[in-house]
């Protein structure tokens, strides 16, 4: 079964609307060690929720991973990796961080515990809870 992830993006830099317009992109710019560790575990076919940071602070869209991690072609640093992702649709309703924090079943979500982390795993149960909130 495919793993589930949450990728954070600053919408002023690259928004879900940009991804939807481009249809696919190279997900790069990750330099935090823990986020890189997670990104190295991402695999082709995995599912991703895109979360807008900044003033929006909400899950806004879904994506699919198109490639296993590979060295960042724009950087000379071997530890930096990227993946290719494709847009799979906006969520019916954005799910705000405040809403996420109110859910007992999401208290262990890395987004709540490690708010600055830009790539994080999401359990199957957490994924289903987030999707249910997006449809509420």
From the N-terminal CA to the C-terminal CA, the straight-line distance is 26 Å
What is the number of beta strands? 7
Cα gyration radius (Å): 14 Å
Q: Helical content, roughly?
A: 25-40%
Secondary-structure content class: alpha+beta
Major sheet: 7 strands, mixed
Strand proportion: 25-35%
Spatial shape: globular
Mean pLDDT: 96
- Elements, N to C (H/E): EHEHEEEEHHEH
Counted by DSSP, the helix tally is: 5
The unreliable regions are none
Structural topology:
Layout: E1 4-9, H1 16-22, E2 24-27, H2 33-40, E3 47-52, E4 58-65, E5 70-71, E6 81-96, H3 97-101, H4 110-113, E7 119-122, H5 124-135
Parallel strand pairs: 1-3
Antiparallel strand pairs: 1-7, 2-6, 3-4, 4-6, 5-6
Tags for this model:
34% strand, 7 strands, 136 residues, 5 helices, single chain, seven-stranded mixed sheet, alpha+beta
Structural description of this entry:
It is a single chain. With about 140 residues, the protein is an alpha+beta fold. It has helices at about 15-20, 35-40, 95-100, 110-115, 125-135, and strands spanning about 5-10, 25, 45-50, 60-65, 70, 80-95, 120. Strands 1, 2, 3, 4, 5, 6 and 7 form a 7-stranded mixed sheet that branches. A hairpin with a 5-residue loop joins strand 3 (about 45-50) and strand 4 (about 60-65). It starts with a strand and ends with a helix. The mean pLDDT is about 95.
